[in-house]
Amino acid sequence: MGRIDKLCKYLSPCASFADIGCDHGYCTQYMLKNNLCQSAVVSDVSEKCLQKAERLLKNYIEAGKCKPVCCYGLEKIEPSTDLVLIAGMGGEEIISILKSAYIPENFVLQPMRNVRKLREYLLQSGAAITRDDVFESGGKYYFVICGRRNGRGLTYSGARLEFGYGDPAGDLGGYLMEELAKKRGYLTRDPGPGQRAAIIQDIKSIEEFLKGEIS
Length: 215
What we know:
- There is one protein chain.
- With about 220 residues, the protein is α/β, with parallel strands linked by helices.
- Helices cover about 40% and strands about 20% of the residues.
- It contains 9 helices and 7 strands.
- The longest helix has 18 residues, at about 195-210.
């Protein structure tokens, strides 16, 4: 199962759905094809990229169930949209999109990097993170953060901010073992004293987390 197929499993039924940075529009196709939303918006900052989604979703667009919009982030997306997906871009770019607009009522975010920064921003903004998972596809690991604009969500310590709430016996464990291997490799490259100490501390934190000694 590919990244998009696995990502779609985190999408829940809703009245209105928006896919930001939609690329080919596969996630929106999944929502419409499975009757998981009544209407959808696909958006991208690139008109050329948006055209790929328009071709895939042509029948839904003609039926009035899907609307293509060329814009940056949430610029032209109604704040009342029930569920917003922002996937396949860096955590800092997602933060920039949210800062320039608003926290969606319900969201699914799939950052490619800087995951901790995104978690911290959401929590500082009063958003509730309700699911914080990681999955493997094609030998790579992808974090998924689900939540809503406000309310009660998961609680976070330093370790959870760094690693999320995935299953240490599942894909999160696989990701952490890969990180351990990378960091142990860094130590063989004779890093400077300060960098070496930081790497050793990172290794210790991952090992303790895997053993259940920190949460």
